[in-house]
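Quick one, T. Sequence first:
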Amino acid sequence: MTQAGDVTQAAGLAGFVLMRAAAGEAEILTLAVDPQHRRQGVGRALVDAGLAAALAVPCAQVFLEVADTNTAAKRLYASLGFAAVGRRVAYYADGPGAPADALVLRWHAGSV
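Structure tokens:
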């Protein structure tokens, strides 16, 4: 069941998306999927719900940041029409190694 940006399974919460909107733009602040529910379409359903909510506000653009090292997330966002518009160097502390860059992605209404 999808309700207000969360995906709920019989056993509990499978994931959530946190967004904000202002001045005709929206931003995905956090997207999280329980590890047991990954690769089952939960992330896609959450982002789809978020994009629908953004269009209803209405917002023509949605932004987010993703670690350049997060291949699965980058693939998901690209499949939904997000494109890189910027980079934040050494933005994420990625464990004991060197920090990871953040890619700034943008989705524009009508891009898919």
